[in-house]
Amino acid sequence: MLHTFDLLVIGDANPDVILGPLDAPLAFGQREQLVSGGTLTLGGSAAIVACGAARLGLRVAFAGRVGDDDAGRYIRDALAAHGVDIQGLHLDPERSTPLTVILTRDQDRAIVTAPGTLAATSETVPAIRLAGLTRPGIPAA
């Protein structure tokens, strides 16, 4: 089946866990620090662009790779909930979904990422996955 989209976004997607603000330096040594807020949200530059474009009314398809795990399913569901077509999102059974933790303090932040499938992004877009995606006025290959 041929699908027409205004934008195909190819790239990264991961959950972001944002915690803060820290009111003291980060303490190691098995010490828990409490912060006033925490958020789980969709992250990854490509995923954020895809959702923003869909919010503006464009028909958007996303091609990327995440793990076949809870975090990957969160990404799949979040993209779909924003109206992004996820046919090109590959759930990788061998690699984990990238995860990012962002710690905030004052006007600054520290970002820690476990890359998971990020290194495999170039494996994400085999020609067969894109064969049914076209731009209006441009014939399919």
Topology:
Elements: E1 3-4, E2 7-11, E3 14-20, E4 37-43, H1 45-55, E5 60-67, H2 70-81, E6 85-92, E7 99-105, E8 108-114, H3 127-130, E9 133-134
Parallel strand pairs: 1-9, 2-5, 3-7, 5-6
Antiparallel strand pairs: 3-4, 7-8
Structural account:
With 141 residues, this protein is an alpha/beta fold. It is 19% helix and 38% strand. It has one domain: UDP-N-acetylmuramoyl-L-alanine:D-glutamate ligase (3-Layer(aba) Sandwich), CATH 3.40.1190.20.
Write a compact overview of the structure shown.
This protein is of the alpha/beta class and about 140 residues long. The chain has helices spanning about 45-55, 70-80, 125-130, and strands at about 5, 5-10, 15-20, 35-45, 60-65, 85-90, 100-105, 110-115, 135. It has one domain: Ribokinase (UDP-N-acetylmuramoyl-L-alanine:D-glutamate ligase).
Main attributes of the structure:
141 residues, alpha/beta, UDP-N-acetylmuramoyl-L-alanine:D-glutamate ligase, 4-stranded mixed beta sheet, 3-stranded parallel beta sheet, 19% helix, 38% strand, globular, disordered C terminus
CATH architect. name:
3-Layer(aba) Sandwich
Shape label: globular
Low-pLDDT regions: 137-141
Instruction: Tally the structural domains.
Output: 1
The value of Rg in angstroms is: 17 Å
By secondary-structure content and strand pairing, the structural class works out as: alpha/beta
Q: What is the rounded distance between the termini?
A: 14 Å
- Helix percent reads 10-25%
SSE order, as H and E?
Answer: EEEEHEHEEEHE
Question: Widest sheet: strand order?
Answer: 4-3-7-8
The major sheet is characterized as: 4 strands, mixed
- What is the tally of beta strands? 9
Oligomeric state of shown chains: single chain
CATH-level-4 superfamily name: Ribokinase
CATH class: Alpha Beta
Average per-residue pLDDT, rounded, comes to: 88
**So how many helices?**
3
| Percentage of residues in strands | 35-45%
